[in-house]
């Protein structure tokens, strides 16, 4: 069939042609937006799940919902080696700029931007040379005495409170979206929780929507014990059969193409219902199918190409980031997996026994893999892959 008309879109954070299986999450966020608009108390949201389940896509869809209700929004992608000051300052600058045209008092906007600039400038090292100092693109003088103490927890609470006041003036809200939230540095996680806690007590119209790997709730809980009650947690998982079929069939029908039932059976078996894999196998199958309806034989012919692309772009690129010692650790994990379900965790003691090593000697490799986002520890003494089917991939490699 015509590859130009191929509707499928396997890409990092790229919205698929049919956002199937996420109606519940979208409906929940609609309720959150409406409750905040009516001045009702509401918690911030945290989405968790493995890589490839569509957390970033869903995060962007939620942001679109907020924009549709005329909220101010900003989005950041956390990095383990970067403080939140710069990205949060940029995101809130964007959010307030969206609200500014509707605000009746320009001086109030300038006052907040002065506070925001002071907050951002604290990202500079005190002994940094003038030419090395970062300057945020905010065209008002920095104000002193607010959000500029240098203590990220104090400053973030004050900054969020002032930003929420701007939203209150306009009669709307602000939503800050944070992707890869598990990579926020420890002190900044604590500050973020404290700021959300303060906002929830005030009933202020500013919420945080975070997305991260399955161990993100544990990261938040380690920072502040009350985080378990502070956020509404939503686990984002693979698609069920009905949703996976919808993700494939709905865009195909718009191109007047159909699937035979056995083709859909095989595609679900190959993809496991993971949205990224659904798109990858769907795209390859479309390109190889000579005509409609698409058959199971078309899927079998196309599957090796999809698997080869996944091996290079999805699995291989991550494997290459690991050191030899880290690869050895992951291979041992893969060997201990009894199924292809990558939600299944293995005991760290079993990994050590498999390698004939003492558990303590493997701690550096394990910790490095967690930091690189290749594995996670959902429970004490266990580890699992963050990437679905990664164990299966490793077992096929020489």
UniProtKB/TrEMBL annotation:
What keywords sit in the KW lines?
A: Heme, Iron, Metal-binding
Keyword Metal-binding recorded = yes
Q: What InterPro entries does UniProt report for this protein, alphabetically?
A: AAA_16 (IPR041664), Cyt_c-like_dom (IPR009056), P-loop_NTPase (IPR027417)
Q: What are the residue boundaries of the Cytochrome c domain, all occurrences included?
A: 168-353
Return the annotated region ranges for Disordered: 1-20
Molecular function terms from GO = electron transfer activity; heme binding; metal ion binding
Instruction: Tell me which domain of life the UniProt entry assigns to the organism this sequence originates from.
Output: Bacteria
Q: What is this protein called?
A: AAA ATPase-like protein
Q: What is the lineage of its organism?
A: Bacteria, Bacillati, Actinomycetota, Actinomycetes, Micromonosporales
């Amino acid at each position: 069939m015509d590859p130009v008309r191929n509707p499928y879109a396997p890409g990092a954070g790229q919205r698929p042609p049919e956002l199937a299986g996420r109606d519940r999450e979208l409906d929940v966020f609609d309720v959150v937006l409406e409750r905040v608009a009516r001045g009702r108390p509401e918690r911030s949201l945290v989405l968790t799940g493995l890589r490839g389940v569509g957390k970033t896509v869903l995060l962007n869809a939620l942001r679109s919902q907020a924009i549709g209700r005329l909220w101010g929004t900003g989005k950041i992608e956390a990095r383990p080696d970067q403080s939140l000051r710069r990205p949060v300052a940029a995101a809130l600058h964007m959010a307030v700029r969206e609200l500014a045209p509707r605000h009746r008092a320009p001086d109030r906007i300038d006052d907040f931007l002065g506070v925001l600039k002071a907050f951002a400038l604290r990202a500079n090292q005190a002994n940094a040379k003038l030419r090395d100092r970062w300057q945020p693109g905010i065209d008002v003088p920095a104000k002193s005495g607010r959000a500029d103490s240098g203590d990220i927890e104090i400053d973030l609470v004050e900054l969020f409170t002032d930003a929420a006041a701007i939203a209150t003036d306009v009669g709307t809200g602000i939503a800050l979206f944070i992707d890869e939230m598990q990579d926020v540095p420890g002190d900044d996680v604590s500050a973020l929780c404290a700021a959300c806690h303060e906002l929830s007590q005030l009933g202020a119209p500013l919420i945080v929507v975070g997305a991260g790997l399955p161990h993100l709730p544990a990261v938040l809980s380690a920072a502040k014990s009350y985080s378990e009650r502070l956020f509404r947690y939503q686990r984002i998982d693979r698609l069920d059969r009905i949703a996976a079929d919808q993700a494939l069939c709905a865009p195909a029908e718009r191109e007047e193409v159909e699937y035979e039932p056995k083709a859909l059976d095989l595609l679900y078996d190959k993809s496991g219902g993971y949205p990224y894999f659904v798109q990858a196998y769907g795209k390859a199958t479309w390109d190889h199918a000579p005509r409609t309806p698409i058959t199971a034989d078309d899927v079998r012919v196309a599957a090796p190409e999809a698997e080869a692309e996944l091996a290079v772009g999805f699995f291989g690129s991550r494997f290459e980031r690991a050191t030899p010692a880290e690869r050895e650790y992951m291979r041992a994990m893969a060997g201990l997996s009894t199924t292809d379900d990558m939600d299944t965790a293995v005991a760290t003691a079993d990994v050590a026994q498999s390698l004939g090593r003492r558990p303590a000697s493997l701690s550096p490799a394990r910790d490095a893999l967690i930091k690189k986002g290749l594995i996670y520890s959902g429970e004490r003494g266990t580890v699992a892959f963050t990437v679905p089917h990664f164990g299966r991939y490793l077992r096929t490699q020489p």
